[in-house]
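Pair request: fold both.
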Amino acid sequence: MTALENKLGRYAAPSSDTEQEKQERAERMVRKAVEGWSGFDGVGIRFLPKGSYKNNTNVRADSDVDIAVIHKGFHYLNDDALRPSDKIVRHPLTSKRYEGADFRAELEAAMRNAYGSDCDTSGSTAIEIAENGGRVKADVVPSFEHRKYYYDAQGRVRYFEGTTTRRTNGEWVINYPEQQYGNGVEKNERGTGRRYKRMTRILKRVENDLVAAGKIEALPSYFMECLVYCVPNDRFNHGGLTPLTDDITAVIAHIWSQTKPHGLAKDWYEPNGIKPLFGPGQKWSMDDAHTLALETWQNLGLK
């Protein structure tokens, strides 16, 4: 085994058993804090683990937990794609509580009650619970159900169900974590011989190295997951015998070639299959992806 193959094997590894125990403990503690808070009595709440934790793309020693705390009392919607005659009737939200910023404020109160000074509410999106010896850091995201309406191939009104979060600056962010999870499992288990998530972890680890070396600015962890997801399945091993070096070479080469100016990456979608990867409002660009691919190639000494 080459030195590079050995390194890639370490980089491809998921969280250790000890880290997984700490992740699960952090999730249980967040649930307990919310369920025990009297301010949420009578309010429908569901918990949705998401991000790298849920999708099993965490890398070792970088294993935070993301969990959405979702208000089930009502949903926000986007029916801009529908004809006026098909617009959704917005019924009065007679049973709602804690719309918008109010829900975040109540969730902050619940987290401060449970965690005291370990609770940091200064972030624009997530409420952060600090790591300690028994748990990893947890990002708790106050969320609502969201529906994006569209017409299917037969002209019938359908909708994508996702979540929406109000940032402290008033901006709303919409995500589709459950579609992301399902598509990721499909690609990993049946599309790539279980190499998709391994390649994602490798790219995340290399990105960490590049940031530490001052080669690039830090990029969101989710961005690496998106880029690897957009690589066609035939670039990955299917029999379990292909060296990791061959896979990462094919993956990085594809990302680099398709993120050139006028490359096909302009039409890529996030793993949820709903949001354009390089659409308006994203925190990254095709140039970021192109630079990351080039720096990764050079960092690993690929040929």
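--- second member of the pair ---
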Amino acid sequence: MHPPVSRHAHPGAARRPFRLLIVEDEKRLALSLAKGLMAEGYAVDVVHDGLEGLQRAGEGGYDLLVLDIMLPGMNGYRVCGALRAAGHEMPVLMLTAKDGEYDEAEGLDTGADDYLTKPFSYVVLVARVKALLRRRGRSAEPVLRVGSLAVDQGARRVERDGDGVVLTAKEFAVLEQLALRAGEVVSKAEILEHVWDFAYEGDVNIIEVYVSALRRKLGAGHIVTVRGAGYRLVADG
């Protein structure tokens, strides 16, 4: 029998705060994170089981999901993959005790937007949460057009030849940086600086994972690799 969902609402939080769901089976960690995020002004729900997390997240209404990978019932990879397959687009920040590029790539391939390895600094986690929410809630901005691609910065939407392309928040952010400088070479370091913020401590080569995902979704010819320099977004390859 699984414990009931725990809801935490900060009494001084702003009206209609962002709603976050934490799915983490380490109860002390989960409740500590909830308490801290509550103090930041968020409304936070906590569950400790993958199946229950999938059910709660699938009900909608959440602005962001903090998702552990090693969970009872259903692991985080499967939870994230099931949510994306069902069309849920809320940002997903994955937590794991594992440490390795393969695990990170696997998590991102299921549709996660960011990845944090335990143990981590609470300050870093808050920075990641704020960055993901900021990108999701950005006000209306111009539509960037590069050949058959239309990158709507305000709606966080991408179209190719008029057809919508579903991207994760982090995939969109990488594409946005390339589209803002279409035709120019953008280095991995520049993408990291603008997309991952100051808190990222991982391997710069994670950019390759996102570029690969974008090529699968947009067509390989749109993003050109300039060896030793970075990437360039072109009209059509």
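Observation on the second member. The first strand starts at residue 6 and ends at 9.
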